[in-house]
Write a structure and sequence with these properties.
This protein is an alpha+beta fold. The chain is built from three helices and five strands. Strands 2-1-3-4-5 form a five-stranded mixed β-sheet, with helices on both faces. The longest helix has 17 residues.
Length: 127
């Protein structure tokens, strides 16, 4: 499967993000944006999940990723990013620059749809 848009990433990742607690997933991509591997890296509570950039990029390096897409769910069904979500995304973008493994998007997935940091251009000011 190739993930070249937020919509394709949503369709791929939403089947994994069905828990009643927050989960944080990663999709590791080749240079042609095809999926190498994906996994749940963190599992939290009903309203939080403590993801860490170190573990995100450990997975990316172990799978020889050319780029990555990350996603997590909001069991509250409100896809609006929290302050913590925004801070984590900024940390991931900084780490991705340092390591040369671009973060293409961070999705927040709910039953009715998703929020894409890339689509909302929140990342653009950081890239």
């Amino acid at each position: 499967m190739t993930l070249t848009s937020s919509h394709e990433a949503f369709n791929y990742l939403r089947k994994f993000l069905t828990a009643d607690v927050e989960e944080f997933w990663i999709a590791s991509l080749r240079s042609d944006k095809s999926v190498i591997s994906s996994a749940c890296l963190f599992r939290g509570t009903v309203d939080s999940c403590n993801a860490h950039p170190r573990d995100v990029f450990r997975f990316a390096c172990l799978h020889n990723s050319s780029s990555i897409i990350v996603a997590h769910n909001h069991p509250s069904q409100d896809p609006t990013p929290s302050t913590h979500d925004q801070k984590l995304t900024k940390q991931l973008v900084k780490a991705s620059r340092l390591l040369g493994i671009p973060l293409l998007d961070h999705l927040i997935i709910v039953d009715s749809g998703y929020w894409s940091f890339a689509d909302q251009r929140i990342q653009r000011s950081l890239l």
